[in-house]
Amino acid sequence: MAVIPTLGVNIARLHESVSSLVRTDTTCRLALIIVWNDPRQPVPKFDEVTVLEPGMNLGFPGALNHARRRIDAEFLWVMQDDVRVAPDCLDNLLRRMSAPDRPALVAPVYLDPDGLIPGQSRGGIVGPDGKMESRIPAESIAPEYFDRRQRMDWVASSGSLARLSAWDSVGGWDPDFYPVIWSDVDFGFRLTRAGFVVALEPDARIEHDINGSTPSLLAHHLFARNGERFRFKNFPAETAGDSLPTDGDRPDANIGVDDAQARQVARAAGLALLDFAAYASAAWQHQERKIRSMGVNAPVDEGQ
């Protein structure tokens, strides 16, 4: 089962992702699901694809959980709408899944123009303080030289194949990492902390428009925000005394709010975020154009 949560509104790119999945060369049965996260937009027509419409923007992790509750399968192929897979990608992922270490999650790789797996692109190790200690591979490397036995705490979500028995045992993905970014770090980290193996398979290939569905300004914001959320959640002792508001800090905050009201607020928040994403993207691009027109080569201040 392949699941694509929509993160943007680039319909052409979504069609390319679906088309690559349809061209998958495998003897296994492959069903495709799209979780349509923007109820304001009309749903495109797709052949042989099931479209789930939750009526709100669930974000990436929330959409994956939404789809998982509706399927009965051994594996779930986690896709993004800016990813295209090679025809043999799935079979190579399945082959790695059947290795003696029985990984719970296996991710493919993408190659740069020189045919190398880019450094720091597909996984990592979390340090004892909850911050990223290292990323994998440490530097660009030819796929044939990548060590499949390399230990890691998490792998990138794009194109990853998850064993659903392991998925369920750790409670699935955490929708608090909304709408995206760090959710894959959290999911992989919880798997490895529970004793499961996560791995990269260099023979499984994808093409990925990195953050193609997440505007740059929003991505910078979410990387910082959700990174702190990860640390507060998984390393409470190391973050004691720091301050990050959570629902648990306000146990009575939702008294008197029924499910319908909560759903309405959640829907409004999701749509507001979509609007912010478009606005932030335009603002970021305007700033970059302005700097280039002035002939300045300095990088744009990410804090603005």
UniProtKB/TrEMBL annotation:
Name used for this protein in its record: Unannotated protein
Organism: freshwater metagenome
SUPFAM superfamilies: Nucleotide-diphospho-sugar transferases (SSF53448)
Record bears the keyword Transferase: yes
UniProt-listed InterPro entries: Glyco_trans_2-like (IPR001173), Nucleotide-diphossugar_trans (IPR029044)
Lineage: unclassified sequences, metagenomes, ecological metagenomes
Keywords carried by this UniProt record: Glycosyltransferase, Transferase
Domain Glycosyltransferase 2-like residue range list: 3-110
GO terms assigned for molecular function: glycosyltransferase activity
Record flagged with keyword Signal: no
Similarity annotation: Belongs to the glycosyltransferase 2 family.
